[in-house]
Each structure stands twice: as structure tokens, then as C-alpha cells.
Amino acid sequence: AVPVKLAPSILACDFTRLGEEVKAVSSAEYLHVDVMDGLFVPNISFGLPILAAAKRAARPSQLIDVHLMIERPERYLADFASAGADSLTVHVEATPHLHRAVQLIRALGKRAGVVLNPGTALDTLRPVLADVDLVLIMSVNPGFGGQQFLPQALDRLRTVRGWLDDIGSPAELQVDGGVSTENARALADAGASVLVAGSSIFGEGGAALGLTRLRAALTQ
Ligand code: DX5
Ligand code: ZN
């Protein structure tokens, strides 16, 4: 099996120490940046300046993975690309022009991701599946960190893993929400190639330890 990559979500970090927190997780393959507009989700997180700051603090080759929980994300793709995103992930529920959004991300030279809320039919993914670099399955309803993992995500991951393998797609399969040492192994077994984790990494004992613990849970 391919080794699973980790994507610490800075939503759970101590923002008074953003630079140090980002450096503490520099051994992770990805850095996950959650942008919320208070409209697509019932919360506002942060936007372009924080992304740019996180990018400056990150390891230069670390993949800056931007999860856009915003309505009509196509309006801001160019801005997030210039602010430091390497991959841009848009919700299928957030735009009537999903395929156009994917094309736009690719035209900006970035990796294109699509993401589904827990209540959204997986079929909405199929028309763009061959054109994306990343599929994200939400395992909580987006908007907040620290929520409980929804176990139906496991079956959804298995289904999408099958679809990607059927078409020979190299796209990453990511899962986000409630990821912990308890479920990391099962998520990898269900076909996830990237685990996003906020509160389980930036918790007690510091982010470096949180990252090590999650990595250890994967090799058990
Ligand atoms: C939720 C965000 C997640 C969040 C995950 O809307 O998309 O990336 O940071 O946080 P945890 O890992 O605490 O569930
Ligand atoms: Zn996220």
C-alpha cells in the first residue's frame, strides 16, 4: 500500500503563534488551510493574509492545501493561487459551475480538488472525476474543528477509491473531520491517501507530538 500523507489543519492551531505552529508540522506532506465565508458554512475563519503568512512559515516544498468553504469559489481562485495555494479544493455544493471551477484551477497551474459534504450524493463527483487531482470526503459537516467523526465516511471513501482505481486516476483521496489516532488506520484501509487533522494534531503536548502520534497510529 502507498504510504498515507498527513495534512495538519491550521484551523486548530494557536493563531498567536502561527509561524511556530506551522513550523512544528513542517515534516507533514501537506498543510491544510480552511477558508470559511460565513455563508457556505455557519462560521468565518480567515482568508488571504493568513494563507500568505502560513505559506511563508511552511517548508518550501510543503504542499499548501486550501479548502475553500465559500460560495461561488470561482470568484476568488486567482487570489488564493497568488497568495500561496498549491492545491485549491472547491465544494460541489458551492457552485453551479463545478467543471468550470476545476478548469480555472488547472489554468492557474494549481492542483484541482473537489469536496463533498456528508449529505451530498457521491454521484455529483462523477462528471469531474477524470479531471481532478484530489477528491475530499468530509467526515463532519464543515464549519468547525473538533467535531465527531461520521463513520459513514468509510463507505464513501471505499466507493470513491474504487471509482478512481477503475479509471486509473492518480488523484489523492483525502478525508477531513474528526480524524484521530482512533480511526486513522481504518481510513487508510478504506482507501484514503491523505488524512486532514486539526484538533488531534494541535492539541495537548504540542503539534510535533500530535503529528508523531498520528503517524504512529498509521503504522500499527
Ligand atoms: C472543518 C474543516 C476541517 C477542520 C478539521 O470544516 O474543514 O479541516 O479543521 O478539524 P478536526 O480535525 O478537529 O475535526
Ligand atoms: Zn478542511
From TrEMBL:
GO terms for molecular function: D-ribulose-phosphate 3-epimerase activity; metal ion binding. Catalyzes the reversible epimerization of D-ribulose 5-phosphate to D-xylulose 5-phosphate. Keywords: Carbohydrate metabolism, Cobalt, Isomerase, Manganese, Metal-binding, Zinc. Signal peptide: none annotated. Its cofactor is Zn(2+); a divalent metal cation; Mn(2+); Fe(2+). Pathway: Carbohydrate degradation. One of its GO terms (biological process) is pentose-phosphate shunt. The keyword Metal-binding applies. This is Ribulose-phosphate 3-epimerase. The gene is rpe. It comes from Deinococcus irradiatisoli. Belongs to the ribulose-phosphate 3-epimerase family. It comes from the Bacteria. It catalyses: D-ribulose 5-phosphate = D-xylulose 5-phosphate. PROSITE patterns: RIBUL_P_3_EPIMER_1, RIBUL_P_3_EPIMER_2. Substrate binds at S9, H67, G143, F144, G145, G146, D176, G177, G178, G198, S199. SUPFAM superfamilies: Ribulose-phoshate binding barrel. The keyword Repressor does not apply. Gene3D superfamilies: Aldolase class I. The active site is at D34, D176. It is an enzyme of class 5 (isomerase). Its EC number is 5.1.3.1. GO terms for cellular component: cytoplasm.
